[in-house]
Structures are given as structure tokens and as C-alpha cells.
Specification:
mainly alpha, 7 helices, globular
Length: about 160
């Protein structure tokens, strides 16, 4: 792909594009896709879901996290479309993950699922904001501590 890009663009331009694209996909995968997949696997292992796909509402929510909003976010990043990456993608993924998917998963009242979600929120720096007060969040933003979460995930970029 870089051979195509370098026909018109400088290495700095296309290298930065690919780094941002990779980071957007990695953020989506690490923060939402993998935890959602783990929750769905725990629900299946616990016998909380039937073998028939899409007969439980949570399966539709999970599908939308991956295919609908998630695809828009990843495709938006690939096409340098910040509006689709954020507002039509990651924003909808976040909203549905935190306010539809997690509550739906908790509604199954499975101990392993609830323990996984509790641990995710308490220990994973990308989700810990859910258990923090507004003052703690403001302080993390003021001090730059919130940036350390993502620099650990992606490493320092030039």
C-alpha cells in the first residue's frame, strides 16, 4: 500500500496515516471488541445463550458493536473520515458498549460475567473512568494522567 501512497505523498504523510489507522483499529479492538467477545464467550459457556444466532437481544447489540458502528469507525479511519471514525463510529460503539451491552450482559446474572465486567471496570485503565468521580476524571485530564493510558497501549510515537 505504501508504494501507492508514495506516488503522491511524502513518507511522513503516509507513515503517520498508517500509524493513526493502526492505532484506531487497535483502540477499537482492545477497548471494545475483545472485552465484548470475552463476555459473549462467558455467556455461551454458562449456557445463557441459545445455539441459535440473533434470537437474544444481546446478540444484536454485539453484532452492532462489531459490524455496524465498529465497521464505520474502522472504515472511517481507513478513509481519513474523522466524522465517521468518531461520531458515526467510536461514539456509537462506546455508547452501546457501556449503556446497552454491559447492562444486557449483567442482566443474565452470571457470576463469571459480572466478575469479568467488575474487574474490567476496576482494573483496566481504559474502562476505569466508570468507577471514578468527576473530580478524579478532571484531575487526570488536567495532569495528563489519562494520556498515559493510551501511550502504554500504543507506545510512544515520534
Amino acid at each position: 500500500m505504501t508504494r501507492v501512497c508514495r506516488q503522491c505523498h511524502s513518507p511522513g504523510f503516509y507513515e503517520n496515516f498508517f500509524a493513526q489507522f493502526d492505532d484506531a483499529v487497535e483502540l477499537y479492538n482492545e477497548k471494545f471488541a475483545l472485552p465484548a467477545l470475552q463476555i459473549m464467550q462467558l455467556l455461551r459457556e454458562a449456557g445463557k445463550l441459545t445455539d441459535t444466532d440473533f434470537d437474544e437481544p444481546i446478540e444484536w447489540t454485539y453484532f452492532y458493536l462489531w459490524h455496524h458502528e465498529g465497521r464505520r469507525a474502522r472504515h472511517g479511519a481507513a478513509m481519513m473520515g474523522p466524522d465517521y471514525t468518531w461520531w458515526h463510529g467510536i461514539y456509537d460503539v462506546m455508547h452501546n458498549f457501556y449503556f446497552k451491552f454491559l447492562p444486557a450482559a449483567r442482566a443474565f446474572s452470571d457470576a463469571d460475567v459480572n466478575a469479568y465486567i467488575d474487574k474490567l471496570i476496576a482494573e483496566d485503565p481504559m474502562h476505569k473512568w466508570l468507577s471514578q468521580s468527576t473530580d478524579e476524571l478532571k484531575n487526570a485530564i488536567r495532569t495528563g494522567a489519562h494520556q498515559k493510558i493510551y501511550s502504554k497501549l500504543f507506545g510512544e510515537k515520534p
